[in-house]
Amino acid sequence: MGTASFLQRVQALLRIRNQLARECLAELLAVFVLILITLSGSAQMVTSSGTKGNFLTAYLAGALAVMVAVYTAGGVSGAHLNPAFSLSMCLLEQFPWWKFPIFVAIQTSGAFVSAGAVYALYYDAIQHYGNGTLAASGPHETASIFATYPAEYLSLSNGFLDQVVGTALLIVGILAILDTRNKGVPKGLEPVAVALLVFSIEVSMGSNCGCPMNPARDFGPRLFTYVAGWGAEVFRWGEGRGQG
């Protein structure tokens, strides 16, 4: 009884009652999980030179990461995970505008911290693959583990169009899945449907830019690579760096 009482007191002390704080922590954890799995899939593919993964496995990891992340925070924050989705909810008047910058900051921070976790997890592999250097271009670049880069042939305007179309399709698909007026997805399987949507977009529109579809997913880890030593090249529109 004494142990049970002590645990109950600890739980009471740790319980967060402020709704906004709960939502922010849930969103932070969900984005951390999302990016941890997504970038680890890319890291396994890149550092093994394709022997332990390929674009298909990396895309699958990213799609399944979305499913896990939505299950993680869906009941608390709605599992936005993506500034583009948060913005869409604001435009549809389903999310207050004052929360928008807070969620964007939380989503970007979660992606940044998660990128650091992936770097630590794959540190030896990255160092081995890059011969001790952190390169953003060339045959042994590792920046594409963390952020997405354009294919060699892609122009800036075509890259912009690619991301607008892919992100718009993602948002429209999610809204359709969640719309109760449509043929409903069985309750509890909405995250699975969203994961399948993400996977379908990745395998059909991923060749141009790697299909990030999420500003926080791309900017947070990209900022981490800049801070960690890859240099300012990670923010330049370049060629030959692959797609992560």
Automatic annotation (TrEMBL):
GO terms for molecular function: glycerol channel activity; urea transmembrane transporter activity; water channel activity. Keywords: Cell membrane, Glycoprotein, Membrane, Repeat, Transmembrane, Transmembrane helix, Transport. It is a multi-pass membrane protein. The chain crosses the membrane at residues 24-46, 58-79, 100-122, 160-178. SUPFAM superfamilies: Aquaporin-like. Coiled coil: none annotated. The keyword Glycoprotein applies. Homotetramer; each monomer provides an independent glycerol/water pore. Could also exist in other oligomeric states. It holds the Pfam family MIP. GO terms for cellular component: basolateral plasma membrane. It catalyses: H2O(in) = H2O(out); urea(in) = urea(out); glycerol(in) = glycerol(out). Its main location: membrane. This is Aquaporin-3. Belongs to the MIP/aquaporin (TC 1.A.8) family. It comes from Heliornis fulica (sungrebe). The keyword Glycoprotein applies. InterPro entries: Aquaporin-like, Aquaporin_3, MIP, MIP/Aquaporin, MIP_CS. It is found in: Cell membrane. Aquaglyceroporins form homotetrameric transmembrane channels, with each monomer independently mediating glycerol and water transport across the plasma membrane along their osmotic gradient. Could also be permeable to urea. Also participates in cell permeability to H2O2 and H2O2-mediated signaling. In skin, transports glycerol to the epidermis and stratum corneum, where it maintains hydration, elasticity, and supports lipid biosynthesis for barrier repair. In kidney, contributes to the reabsorption of water, helping the body maintain proper fluid balance.
